Amino acid sequence: MMRVLVTGAASGIGRGVAEFLASRGHHIIVTDINFTHAEVVAKVIGDKGQSAEAFALNVTSQAEVNRVAERLNGRIDVLINNAGVQHVESLENFPMDKWEFLTQVMLVGVARLTQAFLQGMKDNDYGRIINIGSIHALVASPYKTAYIAAKHGLLGFSKSLALEIADSNITVNTLCPAYVKTPLVEQQIASQAKEHGITEEEVINNIMLEPMPKKSFIEIEELAGTCEFLLSDYAKNITAQAIALDGGWTAR
User: Fold this and answer.
1) CA-to-CA distance for 17 and 7, rounded, in angstroms?
2) Under DSSP, is residue 245 helix (H, G, I), strand (E, B) or coil?
3) Cα–Cα distance for residue pair 69/48, rounded to 1 Å
4) Concatenated DSSP letters for 141-152?
5) Which residues are registered as beta bridge partners of 218?
6) CB 85 within 8 A of CB 102
7) pLDDT range class, residue 184, cuts 50, 70, 90
8) pLDDT, tens digit, for every residue of 127-174?
């Protein structure tokens, strides 16, 4: 049984990955800024006879990161940096405090969490750091400057850290899925329809799925299964990689 900490685990990708890995026998540390929702997920897992605990965690707060790390004695086996937010707007109208907040959550927050648990992984001679990126860590779209800057930065962070700790049994990888049907993406559909002046159906068909040869949303189970593989010894030399689950998008 591995101790797996998932951020942003109260819904969407984070919840799906948490529940999947719990079903595989791992102990899940469910963290989210909304503690009540994190508790619900931990209870759902526990009611199935599986193992989980919940913590409130705002990844933009160093104090909260330190508190959780102290409660866990700095010891986890797997860190899945999933917490994410989105805001769709032209740069001219983009509130700069919101721009900064997105990068704090999806880039600086990742560094905070990783720093807090890295020494424990080294001491245990095992660690897997899996960053949930996006197709937008590899390509760009308009009206998402903060999100795309953070996700592009995440790739650089992952590669650099992987080189720093290459002499240890710790890997650092970034999963880069095309659109996954989550509440975050549902919100984007409406926002993009407004920015582009088109219908929500046109956003789905002409913006989200148009660049993807397979023309389908990525399922959370695909991401969860990839995480499970990265935990195994079969993946011990897979590090510093951007793993695209994109239906052929980036082949074009």
Assistant:
1) 10
2) strand
3) 27
4) -TT-HHHHHHHH
5) 180
6) yes
7) confident
8) 999 999 999 999 999 999 999 999 999 999 999 999 999 999 999 999
Question: Angle at CA 241, nearest 5°, toward 51 and 211?
Answer: 100
Q: Residue 201 burial by CB count (10 A; 0-12/13-18/19+): exposed, middle or buried?
A: exposed
Q: In b/e form, how buried is each residue of 78-106, taking b as 16+ CB within 10 angstroms?
A: bbbbbbbbbbbbeeeebeeeebeebbbbb
Whole-angstrom distance, CA of residue 216 vs CA of residue 137:
19
Tell me the C-alpha to C-alpha distance, in Å, between residue 59 and each of 44, 55, 65, 68, 193. Answer: 23, 12, 6, 10, 30
Task: Say how far apart CA 9 and CA 97 lie, in whole Å.
Answer: 24
Residue 129, beta-bridge partner list? 79, 172
Domains belonging to the chain, first-starting first, are 3-178+219-245 (3.40.50.720)
d(CA 45, CA 156): 34
Distance of CA 96 to the CA centre of its chain: 23
Residues acting as catalytic residues: 147
Distance CA 30, CA 8 (A): 8
